[in-house]
Specification:
Elements: E1 6-12, H1 19-35, E2 40-42, H2 70-82, E3 85-95, E4 98-106, E5 112-117, H3 129-132, E6 150-152, E7 157-160, H4 169-177, E8 182-184, E9 190-191, H5 196-218, E10 221-224, E11 228-231, E12 239-242, E13 246-248, E14 254-257, E15 263-269, H6 271-280
Helix pairs in contact: 1-2, 4-5
Length: 302
C-alpha cells in the first residue's frame, strides 16, 4: 500500500433525459471537486442517464455505449487535464446482446485502467435490472474471483463496487483482500413514494449501516455517491432517489455526509489509519479461512 494521504471526492446529483446535459453537468462538478482538492473522484451509478430500469423496454438498450466510447473519451480528456482519477459508471454495450452495469476507472494521466462490471444484479419493482444487465464474471480459469478488482491509481489503490453490491459483505471482503484502500459504491437507490412515510428512514439507515460495517470489518475507507431527484415512470409512482451520500473512515465514522440536494463531498484518506486500525482490530489476521467452505452454498438449512 502507498502510505501517502490522498483526497477523494464523490458527486451527488440528478439526471435528466438529456444525456449531453448530464455529461456537461458531471464535467462541471468534477472540475469543482478537483478545485476543492479531490484527487480521486467518483460519479453516481449510470451517471449520464435517468435510471431507466424502472420498466422493461427494449428501446432503452439504445442508451448503452462501448467502453472505451464517447463518454469515457470525454472523461479521459478531463482526467488528463485536471490530473485526477475518475470513476465513471455507465451503461456498457460490451457486444450485441451483452450489456453491463459498469464503471470505467480512469487514471490521472487519462489512461483507461480497466472496467468493473456489477456482480450482483437486483430484480424488484421499478428496479428491473436483470432485464438489462449481464452480471460481471464470477471466476477466471483458475477459479479466482476475477469479477472483483482493484486498481493502483496515481494516488491510491481503489476498489469499485456498484449499488446492489453494497449489501454483500463477500464483495467488500474480497475487494479489500485484493488491496483496496477505499471502496467506492456508485449508487442509484431511492424510495417508492408510497412507502416513504413508513419505511423511508429505516431504509436510509440500513443503507448507511451496511456500508459502514464494510469499512469497520475490513479496515478501509468507504465512499458512496447516490443520485437525487424524483424520476417518473408511466403507470407508476416513479422513484425518489434519496441522496444521503457519505464517506466513512475505517472506524465507520462519517467524514462527510450529504442531504438530498446536489452536493460534492470531499475527504482526506490516510493509509496510516488503515495500518493502525488493522493492528489493533486484526480481523483479517484472525479469519478462519479453513472453515468458510459452507459459504459457497446457497442455503445450509434443511
Amino acid at each position: 500500500m502507498a502510505d501517502t494521504p490522498f483526497t477523494i471526492g464523490i458527486i451527488q446529483d440528478h439526471a435528466t433525459a438529456d444525456v449531453r446535459d448530464n455529461l456537461l453537468r458531471a464535467e462541471r462538478l468534477v472540475r469543482e471537486a478537483a478545485g476543492k482538492g479531490a484527487q480521486v473522484i467518483c460519479l453516481k451509478e449510470l451517471f449520464n442517464a435517468p435510471y431507466f430500469c424502472k420498466a422493461q423496454r427494449s428501446d432503452r438498450f439504445d442508451l448503452a455505449e462501448p467502453i472505451p466510447g464517447p463518454t469515457t473519451d470525454a472523461m479521459q480528456a478531463l482526467a488528463r487535464e485536471l490530473a485526477v482519477v475518475i470513476v465513471v459508471p455507465v451503461f456498457e454495450r460490451q457486444a450485441a446482446g451483452i450489456y453491463r452495469n459498469s464503471a470505467a476507472i480512469i487514471d490521472a494521466d487519462g489512461s483507461l485502467l480497466g472496467v468493473y462490471r456489477k456482480m450482483h444484479i437486483p430484480d424488484d419493482p421499478l428496479f428491473y435490472e436483470k432485464y438489462y444487465f449481464t452480471p460481471g464474471e464470477g471466476t477466471d480459469d483458475r477459479g479466482g474471483a476475477s469479477g472483483f478488482k482493484v486498481w493502483k491509481t496515481r494516488y491510491a489503490t481503489i476498489g469499485v463496487l456498484i449499488c446492489w453490491d453494497q449489501w454483500y459483505p463477500e464483495a467488500a471482503r474480497i475487494t479489500s483482500l485484493l488491496g483496496a484502500q477505499v471502496l467506492f459504491y456508485p449508487t442509484a437507490i431511492g424510495w417508492h413514494p408510497s412507502e416513504k412515510a413508513e419505511w423511508g428512514q429505516a431504509q436510509v439507515d440500513a443503507w448507511k449501516t451496511i456500508q459502514r460495517s464494510h469499512a469497520i470489518a475490513n479496515g478501509v475507507y468507504v465512499a458512496s455517491p447516490n443520485r437525487i431527484g424524483h424520476e417518473s415512470e408511466p403507470g407508476t409512482d416513479g422513484i425518489t432517489f434519496f441522496g444521503h451520500s457519505f464517506i466513512t473512515d475505517p472506524f465507520g465514522r462519517y467524514l462527510a455526509e450529504a442531504g438530498e440536494a446536489e452536493e460534492i463531498l470531499i475527504a482526506q484518506c490516510d493509509p496510516a489509519l488503515i495500518e493502525t486500525v488493522r493492528r489493533n482490530w486484526p480481523f483479517l489476521r484472525d479469519r478462519r479461512v479453513d472453515a468458510y467452505g459452507p459459504i459457497l452454498s446457497r442455503y445450509l438449512g434443511t
